[in-house]
Amino acid sequence: MAKKIMGFDAYWLNFYGLMILTLIEVLAVGADLGSTAENLDMTERQITLWILTIIAVPKFVMIAAIFMHLWGDADSGILTLTALFPAFFIIIMVLFIGLTHPESGIGLPDWCRPGNYGL
Amino acid sequence: MNNSTSRRLALLAILAIAMVVVPAVTSLPAGIAGVKDSGCNCHGTEADSSVTASITGLPETYNASETYAVTVSFSGGPSTDGNMNLGGFNLWASDGTFSTVDDSTQLWGPSEASHTESGNDQRSWTVDWTAPESGANVNFILHVNSVNGNEGNGGSSGDMWNRADVTVLGFGDAPLPEVDPFKVLATLVVISGVMLSIVVLYIFYRKNPDSFDWENFSPWISEWLTSTDHKKIGTLYFVQGLFFLGVGGIMALMIRMQLAVPGNDFISQDYYNQFFTLHGTTMIFLAAMPLINGFANWMVPLQIGAPDLAFPRLNAMSFWLQPVAALLIFTGVFSGQGADTGWTGYAPYVVTETTHSGVSMWAAGQLMLVASSTLTGINFLTTMAVMRAPGMGWFQMPLFTWSILVANLMLFLSIPAFGVGLIQVYLDRTIGTAFYDVASGGDPLLWSHLFWYFGHPEVYVVIVPAFGVISEVIATSARRSIFGYKSMVYAMAGIGLVSFIVYGHHMFTSGMSPTLRFITMLTTMLVAVPTGIKIFNWLKTMHGGSLVYRTHTLWTLGFLVTFTLGGISGMFFPSMGMDVHLHETYFVVAHFHYVLVGGTVFGFFAAIYYWYPKMTGRMLDERLGVLHFLTAFISYNALFWPMHRLGVVGMIRRTHTYYITTDDFNALPEWAADWNMLISMSAFLFFASNLIMVYNMIKSLIRGDKAPADPWGGWSFEWMTASPPPTPSFDPHNLPELKDANEHVANEPGIFGQIFRRLMVSDDAAEEESH
Amino acid sequence: MSGDYHGDNHPSPWGPHDWGHGAPHNSYAPLVMSIGVGIFLLTFGGLFNFGEFDMWYLPLVMVGLAVTGIGLFVWWRQDMSFDASYEPIATGTPFKHIQVRKVGMWVFLMSEMMIFSSLFSTYMRYRQGIPRCDTVFERGMFDPVLNPDGWQEGVAVTCFEPASHLIASSWFHLAPGAINTFALIVSSFTIVQALRWAHKPVGSVDEEVRRKRIYRYLGATTLLATLFLTLKIVEWFVGFPLPEFLHEYNHGHSSIKSLYAEHYLITNDHYTHHSYIDEATGAHMVANIRVSATLFYVTTGTHGLHVLIGIIGLAYLTFKAWTGAYNPQSAVSIEYFGLYWHFVDLVWVLVFPFFYLY
Question: Does the distance separating the beta carbons of C193 and A11 come in below 8 Å?
Answer without folding.
Answer: yes
